[in-house]
Amino acid sequence: MKSVRVNLVLAAVLLAILGAVLHPLALLMGLAPFDTRPFVAILEAIRTAIANLLGWGLFSLVVIMLAYVIRGRLSEPQRDSAMEKWFRDVNSHPDFPPHRDRVVVVITAYNDAAATAQAVRDFKRQPAVIKVLVIDNNSTDQTAELAAAAGGTVIREPRQGYGYACIRGLSEATKVPGADVIVLTEGDGTFVAEDIAKFLAYTSHADLVVGNRVVRGLVDGDSQMDYFFTWGNMAVAMLLRLRFWDARFLGPGGLSDVGCTYRAIRRAALERILPDLGVGGNHFSPHMILVALFSDLSVVEIPVRFRRRVGKSKGASQSLSQGFKVGLAMIWHIMTFSPHSAATKRGIIVDRDGVLVRRQRTRGHLHSGFEFVPGAIESLATLSRHGHKVAVVGSDLTPENGGASSQGAQAVDARIAAEVARMGGQVDAFVLCGHAASEECSCRFPTPRLVIKATQRLQLDPARAITVSNRPAFLDAAAGLGCTTILIADDTQQRVSDIRAADAEDLVGAVELVLAGESESGPSEL
Fold first, then answer.
1. Higher pLDDT, 224 or 212
2. pLDDT score of 86 more than 50
3. 363 lies in which domain range?
4. What is the pLDDT of residue 432?
5. Which of 339, 359, 384 marks a domain boundary?
6. Which helix H or strand E contains 303, and what residues bound it?
7. Percent of the chain, pLDDT > 90?
8. Residues 35 and 154 both lie in one domain
9. 28 exposure class (CB count in 10 Å sphere: 0-12, 13-18, 19+)
């Protein structure tokens, strides 16, 4: 469905061009020295049909827009979710002390010796930058020597191509201890190091922040962003927005410049998408955005300053023909891209009570006597960052169940969602059992309705799900649906049966089992 919108728009553009060409063609045929009236009549009929089709299409679009406006006015405004309220108050929460993000800058370089060395010096002066990596993509000048002398860590990428240099740099950046944000840029002198502050102002609210070079007043008049490249980037960006259409905001992140090579991404988000980055050519920039959007990362675009480059361009802007070639590659990639690894990842259903949270034993309680099990939230975020869909199931924590209240359970879930999001992951669904402990229900056993609802929310076949719990009977019921199960066991517990169950001491161990199973047997096996 996502690519259908792009194809429809391209078809409409082609029809409009065809209709525009038919009119002068009919006039020219009318000047021919022989009788062309039958041919002219055919051309006129085709032109009229195209005009009618486009006219009705435009009318339908206006009607649909009016319907959205009316529905938005008549429907009740959506209330903030508990997680949104949590994020709004997060700065005042005692568990979140002020933290300055530490940045690793990745500079791709190819035969830009002087400009790259200056870029290294400029970025190293920025307060948040802890390291500057220079990815030398087989330069034949002194790029590597001058960059190292300026204080950069030079890494050579033998595979020729802008995308390969980016992937290598991003991969190396994740190995730098203490890095929170990775900034990707070029060493050609076009970008301003001080704009890092702009990116950091948004990386607390978005996973990927992309620069925008099509803002009047911020782009030098003698830069390569002329009419062709400015309009071209805006047109291709609209195709990407159509593929990830949002009726209210007209696509994600207000994207209008898909080719900007200046961007920042949170480390946890990068670790999540890095295995899916695979384009080695000059159309890597929209490829990275595509992978991020398919991975449900939040993407925003901010205006950055753009200067005339130092030296000659080696990419799309070296000529109109090369720019046109790269533009076509971008369009084709946006139309045909399909994520592969996400389809092979298994969904994870985690029993909240006893696995994620437990009765308070130490200070730093979670809510009304509950606290996080050590390492559990980090493990949940790790699963999400590795591309797994995650659902959390549990009881409603009503007073009869030993909890505080139904509202208290929602607050606990909101806190779990916020903590996981802070670590770069996300919880895709929460499913609750609202029955009191004294009531008989089949939410866990013998019919695990919690698992059934969770797989429905995740749009997942139960056979593609892994259920983690400390309740043996619940796991046996989940195994009956086809789920793989992992028992969080202690000395007091015994399984009801041994149906496809593995053991782990806690969620940390369970996640290690899941990830080890992926690396040894592939993502389809535990």
1. 212
2. no
3. 344-521
4. 85
5. 339
6. strand 299-303
7. 33
8. no
9. exposed
Give the 3-state secondary structure of 68-120. HHHHHHHCCCCCCCHHHHHHHCHHHCCCCCCCCCCEEEEEEECCCHHHHHHHH
Tell me the pairing of strands 208-212 and 263-266.
antiparallel
Same domain, 479 and 402: yes
Does 218 fall in a domain? yes
- Tell me: pLDDT of 364 over 50: no
Residues 517 and 368 grouped into a single domain: yes
pLDDT in tens, 139-151: 999 999 999 999 9
Q: Give the range among 79-93, 342-356, 375-389, 447-461 with minimum mean pLDDT.
A: 79-93
Indicate whether 360 and 396 sit together in one domain: yes
In a domain, 27, yes or no: yes
Task: Give the span between the Cα atoms of 295 and 7, in whole angstroms.
Answer: 22
Quick one: 34 and 172 in the same domain?
no
If DSSP codes are grouped into helix, strand and coil, which group holds residue 208? strand
**Euclidean distance between CA atoms 66 and 58, whole angstroms:** 12
Contact 224, 317 (CB under 8 A): yes
Q: What CATH number has the domain bearing residue 111?
A: 3.90.550.10
Same domain, 319 and 361: no
Number of domains composing the chain:
3
Domain-terminating residue out of 324, 339, 354: 339
Cα–Cα distance measured from residue 111 to residue 119, given in angstroms and rounded to the nearest whole number: 14
User: CB–CB of 315/307 below 8 Å?
Assistant: no
What lies within 8 Å, CB to CB, of 372 at 6+ separation is 356, 357, 366, 419
Residue 89 lies in a domain: no
Q: What is the DSSP track for 453-510?
A: HHHHHHT--GGGEEEEES-HHHHHHHHHTT-EEEEE--TT---S--TTEEEESSHHHH
Name the one residue in this structure whose structure tokens are 């946890």.
268
CA atoms within 13 A on the CB side of 441: 14
Which string of b and e fits 481-493 if b means at least 16 CB within 10 Å?
Answer: bebbbbbbbeeee
pLDDT band, very low/low/confident/very high, at 10 (cuts 50, 70, 90): confident
Q: Does the pLDDT of residue 391 top 80, yes or no?
A: yes
526 occurs within a structural domain: no
User: How far lies 342's CA from each of 242, 291, 386, in Å?
Assistant: 21, 10, 9
Instruction: Check residue 461 and give its pLDDT.
Output: 83
pLDDT over 70 (residue 54): yes
